[in-house]
């Protein structure tokens, strides 16, 4: 699924499900952040037993070279280096009896650790 970037060009950087967008927007608002400017930063960092892991945080604005997309009212910021690893991924939010949280479905993964917290491409 392609998404509209803020500048109007088509992008397949990261897809965000409605449930994930709703939860992230609620969390942004609970932090009194302006959802018209602020957004969710999705990134990749070194770590975990498979070598790489996902990171997420809220940022007040994008960095200069970020890919910025909007999904169901949520702005998502991805830096160029992270985009190489997570382009085409899908961010989901699951709320179940045993656990709740965001998950990333990444088609670029060649191996994952047993707990699913880290990966290799």
TrEMBL record:
Record-linked SUPFAM superfamilies: HesB-like domain (SSF89360)
Start and end residues of each Core domain: 14-117
Stored InterPro entries: ATAP, ATAP_core_dom, FeS_cluster_insertion_CS, HesB-like_dom_sf
Pfam annotation, one family: Fe-S_biosyn
Signal peptide limits: none
GO biological process, one term: iron-sulfur cluster assembly
GO molecular function: 2 iron, 2 sulfur cluster binding; 4 iron, 4 sulfur cluster binding; iron ion binding
Top-rank lineage group of the source organism: Archaea
UniProt feature coiled coil, ranges: none
Stored NCBIfam families: iron-sulfur cluster assembly accessory protein (TIGR00049)
Protein's UniProt name: Iron-sulfur cluster assembly accessory protein
Organism encoding this protein: Natronocalculus amylovorans
């Amino acid at each position: 699924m392609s998404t509209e970037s803020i500048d109007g060009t088509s992008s397949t950087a990261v897809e965000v499900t409605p449930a994930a967008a709703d939860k992230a927007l609620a969390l942004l608002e609970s932090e009194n952040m302006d959802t018209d400017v602020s957004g969710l930063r999705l990134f990749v960092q070194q770590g975990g037993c498979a070598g790489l892991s996902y990171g997420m945080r809220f940022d007040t604005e994008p960095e200069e070279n970020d890919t910025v997309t909007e999904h169901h009212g949520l702005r998502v910021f991805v830096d160029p280096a992270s985009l190489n690893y997570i382009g085409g991924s899908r961010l989901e939010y699951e709320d179940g009896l045993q656990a709740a949280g965001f998950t990333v479905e990444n088609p670029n993964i060649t191996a994952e650790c047993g707990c699913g917290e880290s990966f290799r491409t």
